[in-house]
Design goal:
9-stranded mixed beta sheet; globular; 30% helix; 3-stranded antiparallel beta sheet
Length: 285
């Protein structure tokens, strides 16, 4: 089974920033292509498949390592077999906020979530998974910064977001003289016009602040560094990984690589500090 520690080890050996050139994604939309290229890079980091050119062989390894590979419309993008879920986000500038669209931030991924597909729900026997947000910041078509942040370090519990979503939905649906229908979105108004042929969909567009700003009290970003990688996870999570993987990452001898014990603010109560690990790698290329 693969995991984030193995991915970070592979990254120190393959710090690729020109991902668009390496991964020639199909399609006409450059932004989408860059996003697809970032997803493939993340897959290669997790599977160590950089040197495999044959697509059939590579897909076979992906099938062994991942229980689910998603689509653009439903989270997550990846699920490691018997491991973590992964959501990949690309941003066009270093400090941009992260667009989550109709899906609110997640501290964990739950199998009963209405946002996931049936195939995701049934791909293995699971109820709850840790989720990693992998956020890649581009600059002049090059990968400038890459963040690996576990959801429970970044997002509040699901009840916080569901309460807001439900209150808005209840408020919208309580409007008088408006015909609503059941929907997974905030609301849907039917028969808006006299002919009764027009409808209105009311959707939530969620977003979250960039980790660069959220965690600026434990790590800084130096713009003159060509490529910076930060990974943040709770110490409890770090300790749960196989001993061989922890020994391997802790044996990396480089002045550009570090593992630090830090305290981060709880997403549910900022007055409470949580023990965490910050893994950092920089590359001048």
């Amino acid at each position: 089974m693969t995991n984030i520690l193995k991915a970070l080890i592979n990254l120190t050996e393959n710090p690729i920033t020109d991902i668009s050139a390496r991964y020639q994604a199909n399609g006409r939309n450059r932004a989408n292509n860059m996003g697809e290229a970032l997803e493939v890079y993340v897959k290669d980091l997790l599977c160590n498949t950089f040197d495999i050119q044959d697509e059939t062989e590579k897909n076979k390894i992906y099938s062994e390592k991942f229980s689910y590979i998603g689509n653009q419309n439903n989270p997550p993008d990846l699920m490691i077999a018997n491991g973590d879920a992964i959501e990949v986000k690309k941003i066009e500038s270093i400090g941009s906020q992260i667009a989550l669209n109709s899906s609110y931030p997640k501290d964990k991924l739950y199998s009963d979530s209405s946002m996931i597909t049936q195939d995701c729900r049934e791909c293995e026997d699971w109820r709850k998974k840790d989720i990693i947000y992998v956020i890649g910041a581009m600059q002049q078509d090059k990968l400038k910064a890459l963040w690996f942040v576990y959801g429970d370090c970044y997002a509040a519990s699901k009840d916080i977001y569901k309460r807001i979503k439900n209150k808005i939905s209840e408020g919208v649906n309580s409007l008088p003289d408006v015909e609503f229908s059941e929907t997974k979105e905030l609301g849907r108004v039917n028969k808006v016009d006299p002919l009764g042929i027009t409808y209105l969909r009311i959707r939530g567009m969620w977003g979250i602040d960039n980790p660069l700003h959220v965690f600026d009290y434990i790590t800084s970003f130096e713009r003159d560094i060509a490529f910076t990688v930060n990974a943040i996870m709770l110490t409890e999570k770090y300790n749960s990984f196989p001993e061989t993987d922890k020994q391997a990452i802790e044996s990396i001898l480089s002045e550009n690589f570090s593992i630090s014990d830090v305290e981060i603010k709880s997403p549910n109560n900022p007055a409470r500090l949580l023990n965490a690990k910050l893994i950092k790698f920089t590359n001048e290329l």
